[in-house]
Each structure stands twice: as C-alpha cells, then as structure tokens.
Design goal:
Layout: H1 9-45, H2 55-150, E1 167-168, E2 173-179, E3 182-186, H3 188-201, H4 203-206, E4 211-219, E5 222-233, E6 238-250, E7 257-258, H5 259-263, H6 268-275, E8 281-286, H7 291-304, E9 308-312, E10 319-322, E11 329-330
Helix pairs in contact: 1-2
C-alpha cells in the first residue's frame, strides 16, 4: 500500500506569515483612511461664522490640528513600516520560491533513491551469481584434479628419430603408394625392364618416329605409360632411344593392404621389405588422406633400420618422373 506523504510544514508556515503581513497592511490602510476622514470633517465643521469667535472651539481646533499632525507623523511611520513589511513580504516570497525549488530537488532525489537501491540489488544479485558459478567451476576443477591424481600413470613409448640429414638416393630403391589408407607396392623396376625389352624389339620401327608413347603392364595392379624419344646417328648407323618421362598408374581400386594388414606378420608389405637389404631406401608416395599411414609405416621402417624417403603427392596427381625431375631424398 502506498504511503501518504505528509504535507510540507515549511510551506504552511510561509503561507501563515504572508497572511499576517497582508492583514497588517490592510489595517494600516484603514487607519489612514479613518484619520484622514476625521481631519477633513473637523476642518470643514470648524470654520467659524463671520463675526463670532468661540474660544472653546479654537482650543478644540488647535487640539485637533495637533492630533492631525501627530496622526500624519504616525501615518508616515506606518507608511515606512508598510514599505518595510512589503519588502519583507517580497523577500519572504522569494525565499519561499527558493525553498520550493530546494524541496522539489530533494523530492526528485528521494524518488531516485529507490531506483538506485534497485540497481544495486540487481548488481549485487549478478555478482552473487557469478561468484557461485566461479565456485562451482573451482569445485569441478578440483574433482577433475583428484580424479587425474588417482588414475594410474600410463607409459607411452615415444620414438625418437635422428636429426634429419638429407642425401640423394643412389642405391637400391623400393617404392610404395600410400592412398586411401592403404599400402601398395609399386613394381617400378619390373615395369622398367618390360619397357626396355619392348624398346629393343621395336627399335627398327622407332627410327621412323621422333617421339612415341608406349604402355607396358599391368604388373601387380600397376601399368607404366612412358614417352620415348628417338634420334638416328648417321655416322655410326645407330638409333638412339631414351625415355623422356614416365607415369605409373593403378589399374584398379582398393589396391594394396590396409595399415593393419601391412604391419601384420607375414603380410605382403613385410615380405617385400624382407627380400631387400637393410641398405635399400624405401620411397613412400603419400597422398593427403594417408599421412597417418605414412607415420606408422615410417616408424616400422625406422625400427628395422631402413632409410625412408617421403614423396608428398597432391590429390589426383599421378606418380611419375622425367629426365628433368629430381631423385628421392632420404633422411
């Protein structure tokens, strides 16, 4: 229920003071009018008739004149007092206006106090909620810390690779294709031998063509496309043939073994590695979807002590080489 505000006692006191001042001024004006009327009546009625002089009337006139002079003097004083009272009334009115302004400002401040109190309550409630949230998070972190402290420590073996020192591969090299998470052996040497055999057999027909594209295979799910250039040496009567560039392409999908199959004992990958010496370099042609497979195969080869060379390949790019290409680099 809304409380009724008490009336302003200072405003009531000001009203009473102004009423008193107004009454006094009114009384003074009435007295002045009464005295003026009396004096006028005495003067008009006291005019002696011609030829008669009444001593008593003269005394009365003299007394009345004195009384009139005194009244005029009092009237003057009362007029001064009336001016003083009027000035005081004006000052009181101005003071009342100032007081009303002060009271109005004080009321506005009083009206703002509940709003400020409400804002402080809201801020206090928000701060309390934040404090509870922080306390809950601290308690949660403590529980997690206790759980981690009570868990048994796990020992994980970390393979340490030697500092990479690059060198160009010059000896025996084994090639594998890592794509779709599968490991497939690339029989490059076998395909090159087939290409050499075909070139020797068709050397007479090649002398008539400067550039020719040939294909051999497939061997173990891979075929070799190669471009050969021919030139004739008239002085020696020889036909010179060389391979300018080559590309190895798979002849099917899902070629090779999965990572689990390749690392298992007796797998095709393990058999190929075991048939070569430990000095042979293993080159891994790795596509973007098989980097995890690359790391696992590299770790297995490192454990065997075999040097490994990596060939990152973009998606869809063929595996190949040319006379202007670069050799594998092993670390």
């Amino acid at each position: 229920m809304r409380r009724v505000k008490p009336e302003d006692s200072s405003a009531a006191g000001q009203d009473s003071f102004l009423d008193v001042v107004t009454n006094i001024v009114g009384i003074i004006i009435i007295l002045v009018m009464v005295v003026g009327a009396k004096v006028q009546h005495i003067i008009l009625s006291g005019t002696p008739k011609s030829g008669t002089v009444d001593p008593q009337r003269e005394r009365d006139v003299t007394d009345l004149a004195y009384t009139a002079a005194v009244a005029e003097s009092e009237i003057g004083e009362l007029s001064k007092q009336a001016l003083t009272v009027a000035e005081a009334a004006a000052q009181a009115s101005e003071a009342r206006l100032q007081m009303a302004t002060i009271v109005s400002a004080a009321r506005r401040e009083l009206d703002e106090i509940p709003k400020k109190v409400d804002e402080r309550k809201v801020l206090s409630a928000q701060a309390l909620d934040q404090k509870k949230q922080i306390q809950n998070e601290i308690a949660q972190h403590r529980r997690e810390k206790e759980q981690l402290a009570s868990m048994p420590a796990e020992t994980k073996q970390v393979l340490e690779f030697p500092t990479p020192i690059s060198r160009v591969v010059t000896g025996e090299e084994i090639h594998f294709r890592l794509a779709e998470g599968r490991v497939a052996y690339i029989p490059i040497e076998e395909l090159f031998e087939l290409a050499k055999t075909r070139t020797r057999r068709s050397s007479d027909s090649l002398s008539k063509v400067a550039t020719r594209v040939e294909t051999v295979g497939p061997v173990q799910s891979f075929a070799l496309d190669y471009c050969i250039e021919t030139s004739v040496d008239p002085s020696r009567g020889q036909v010179l043939v060389r391979s300018r560039e080559w590309v190895v392409r798979p002849t099917g999908s899902q070629i090779g073994e999965t990572l689990e199959e390749a690392l298992a004992k007796g797998s095709r990958f393990q058999g190929i590695i075991e048939r070569h010496s430990s000095n042979a370099t293993v080159t891994l042609w790795c596509y973007p979807d098989s980097f995890e497979t690359f790391r696992a195969i590299r770790e297995n080869l490192y454990a065997r002590g075999m040097p490994t060379a990596g060939r990152p390949m973009p998606d869809g790019a063929p595996i190949g080489g040319s006379t202007e290409g670069s050799k594998s680099v092993v670390q």
